[in-house]
Amino acid sequence: MEKSKDELLTGISALKPTEPFPDEIFYEIFEIEDNIERTQYIESLRNTARQLKRVTEFNNLYKSFVLDYAQRQKQTGQKTRFTDQPLELICGEWTANDLGVRTIRYDKNAMPMPYQACSHPILPVEILKNVDTAQERIKLAYFKSAAWQTITVDRSVCANANKIVDALSQFGIEVTSDNAKNMVRYISDCVGLNPLTLNPKKSVNRLGWAGGEFMPYAQDIVYDGDSDYSSLFNNVREQGDYKLWKDYCSNLRKEKIVRLAFGASFGSVLIEPLNILSFILHIWGGESGSGKTVAIMAAMSIWGNPKIGALVKTLDGTKVGIIRNAAFLYSLPFAGDELQTLQKEYKGNFDQLIYRITEGVDRMRGKAAGGVEETKTWHNSFLFSGEEPITKSNSRAGSKNRVIEIEAEKKIIESGNQAVTFLTSNYGHAGKKLIDYLLSTDQQKLKEEYELYFSELCQMDTTEKQAMAMACILVADHILVEQIFTDEKPLVIENVKEYLKSANEVDVAERAYQTVLNWIAKNPVRFLDPKDDNSLNKGEVWGKILIEEDRPEEPPVAIINKDVLSRFLEQEGYDYTALCKKWAAKDRLRRNSQGKYIHNTKVYGIKANYIKLNMLTDGDADGFMDVDEMEDDGQMTLPFD
Asked: Considering only CA atoms, which of 201, 327, 333, 179 is closest in space to residue 267?
């Protein structure tokens, strides 16, 4: 039977000089929760010890008991006792109940000192470890406004008294500069004393491949993304009837362009496993209502809600917005409608956009508070629609390479409104099925199939990057047919070769060369002798066309004023210096006796710097272009349209 405080005091007052103080008088101290009552009891014990002339002995023993008690509390400690708490944690020295979180510590004289961490219930309930960065975040549960609520913050916030005030107070958690240090210590104690309960869980703040699994279908990974992207994340889901969706889309896929959109959509999740570059599929055409947008929506219905504003975005946004959405999707395709809405921002040339999004890595960005942000990366395909091509005649080779452009010359979906209604009611069923297949299949088998397509495509008149993108689409189509649309036959190279750009179409030097030939053909007068009585050239002289009659095996030569040619190329978006080297390597350009590109010579008696361009065409039997003599009307017949 436990003794009362009065009985304990009476007991020690009767102690003999050599009889030790009983342990129970010290244990009673730690059972008293009220600070005033506890202090009164300690002083009563000390006064009694003083009467026995044993106060020094008492003080030494008391300090030892305090140290021992504090150590045992750290090792075993109390437990949280909040009403309806999400979980129970060992909290060490802290008393954690509905009145808040507090503790008693002892000063150098072993006097009790109260400390408060928070005036209301709060405790850590989950630790999240990001699979990309290995950085941890901590989820806190707190009771305010008659309800349990949660907030997730970086671990660094809970380790810094200044940061914790800024981060938590704005959500109504009662943390100030006065109790911040205690709050930090309390959270740290809870985490340290509960290693099994608060064992870090794998987390990710994006969609796509992560740690050998795929979000949002992963079982062992927790989503921990920003609220800004919660809508996008939540739109990757199932709705409606799978069989109805399958039958409806099977009918849409009879149109080859729609089928290629499906291949590019599913092919997005193959980019990382196959270790290839991101690419763009752009469906364009001037006729409104041809079904370009609906084709992209159908392809995105593999994954979730294809509604405009859900998984299909309008491109009327900022560069940063496009980049960050792509990084959040990571492996899932980025679908963008109405490319022409970006005309103003990119001034009609989308080369910069193409390079940025297909590089798969964001540029380094600084933080306002110092340091740099985490560099975002992605491995996905991009599905665009628009009224015109995404690349221009003067686009760089890198831009042409990374895009498969398909013109919708006719209507590709007959009843667009009906299709939109159906697709926004039935979607998302195929995504998990396809990912489950990829997780269970041999990755080496996929790579081998891709290599077969790639090597065969490379033997055609196209580039490696064009072949890479199309090979990915063909592998994706094969899997779609095998797993979903089983009544179809997989696409073969013969079905898609018309959509691949030839090597010359991609080669910027070749395109620039043909542009110059066309320019000469449109302006023959500028290459005539103005001093000739019958000449129609009454203005500028740009050069002349030279045919060496004594050397018929040589191609005609366009001798062009360097400044005139440079100005024309610059207007067309080409760089003269870069082109000269490439033209010379292909025997398009003649060097002077010193091996330089510029000839200081006379044209119609005027000395200046000229460029000598061989007027070659690959299709002529002689290997170069025929240039007829001046006709009676003073025009030059130049058959190189």
From this structure: 333
Q: Yes or no: say if 29 and 42 are a contact pair by the CB < 8 Å rule.
A: yes
- Candidates 375, 316, 374, 373; CA nearest to 346 is 316
Task: For residues 191 and 242, state if they share a domain.
Answer: no
Contact 514, 583 (CB under 8 A): no
Distance from chain centroid for Cα 292: 25
The secondary structure element, H or E, covering residue 480 is helix 464-483
Domain count, the chain: 4
Q: What confidence tens digit (pLDDT) does each residue in 468-524 have?
A: 999 999 999 999 999 999 999 999 999 999 999 888 777 888 888 888 999 998 988
411 belongs to a structural domain: yes
Tokens 């609906």, residue? 294
Domain boundary among 505, 537, 558: 505
The pLDDT-based confidence of 641 (bands split at 50, 70, 90) is very low
Q: Which of 14-23, 277-286, 351-360 has the lowest mean pLDDT?
A: 14-23
Query: Do residues 417 and 308 both lie within one domain?
Result: yes
In terms of Cβ atoms closer than 10 Å to its own Cβ (0-12, 13-18, 19+), residue 534 is: exposed
CA–CA distance from 635 to each of 268, 521, 522, 542 (Å)?
54, 10, 10, 15
Reported pTM: 0.76
What SS3 state is found at 107? coil
Residue 60 lies in a domain: yes
